[in-house]
Design a protein that fits this description.
alpha/beta
Length: 288
């Protein structure tokens, strides 16, 4: 029989991937905590765990994302269930969550009205649920913050609703199937946020790494990468309150085009935030 130490030494997987997979399996089979993965790394592991490890190891070598193998992904202080019907949440998307939290906090302090937030293309629910989780014990937010999260995919919405129920955030977040704004009727929001598909259809990265296994419709607009922003920015004017804010995640080289679209549609002075790598990542603006 093999031990954790022996498996980590002999595996061809990257160290971080191997540790995450082994931690998951040791918890599933043995109830071990992450610290026990270190303190008991010399102990022989049971046959069932080793067989599952071999399966995981092979699937990861074939490129299947770690998050899909273990079925979860950590994101902005929450743990989300993920599967191949949803995009795997990325660390850079946490910047959009942070911006939304700051915007909501300003509005909570400024007046006593309800604050309506719209998350378009929610996928696993990552953005909406991370925002809600941040405010779950905030007395003003409990009474005044309402988040609507939409997606066109039935499978994605099932995943998002499962995550919401698991986190106990149903009082903050509701879900609706919609192709962007198409089924929302007459509603207005203080804040609209979205991480839409923004990879160009010809981008070679779509055929590399984890992206090969993620839902293609969550990655690309099947055009030049800007088609969704054109539609969203044009339509958002009918759904934002005066003084309302719209914020997008986007590719590192798309901020100028998105800013130009916002200005053309009458939004004021777009601003762009950079991620931890120093790349343009979030652009936001306000409706006059």
């Amino acid at each position: 029989m093999s031990s954790v130490k022996e498996l980590l030494t002999s595996t061809p997987l990257q160290s971080i991937d191997a540790k995450v997979l082994l931690s998951f399996l040791c918890h599933q089979f043995l109830g071990w905590s992450k610290s026990q993965l270190i303190s008991r790394d010399h102990e022989a592991l049971p046959e069932g765990l080793l067989l599952e490890w071999k399966r995981f190891e092979q699937q990861r070598l074939e490129g299947l994302p770690v998050a899909y193998l273990i079925g979860t992904k950590a994101f902005h202080n929450i743990e989300l269930q993920v599967n191949n019907s949803v995009l795997i949440p990325r660390p850079e998307t946490e910047l959009l969550v942070d911006f939304a939290i700051q915007e909501i906090e300003k509005r909570l302090s400024a007046d006593s009205e309800l604050i309506h937030c719209l998350d378009l293309g929610t996928g696993s629910g990552a953005i909406a649920l991370a925002i809600a989780f941040h405010f779950k014990d905030h007395p003003k937010a409990v009474e005044r913050l309402k988040i609507l999260a939409t997606d066109t995919s039935t499978e994605a919405l099932v995943t998002a609703e499962t995550n919401s129920a698991h986190l106990g955030l149903g009082h903050f977040v509701s879900f609706k199937q919609s192709d962007w704004f198409s089924t929302l009727g007459v509603q207005t929001f203080d804040l609209i946020i979205s991480n839409p598909p923004y990879i160009s259809k010809d981008d070679p990265h779509l055929k590399l790494g984890d992206l090969r296994f993620e839902p293609i419709s969550a990655l690309t607009d099947f055009s030049n990468g800007l088609a969704n922003y054109v539609e969203l920015i044009y339509s958002a004017k009918s759904f934002l309150l005066s003084g309302g804010c719209i914020a997008f995640e986007h590719g590192y080289n798309q901020s100028k085009e998105i800013s130009d679209l916002l200005l053309f549609e009458g939004f004021s002075s777009p601003q762009t935030l950079q991620d931890l790598a120093g790349l343009d990542r979030i652009t936001f603006s306000y409706l006059n």
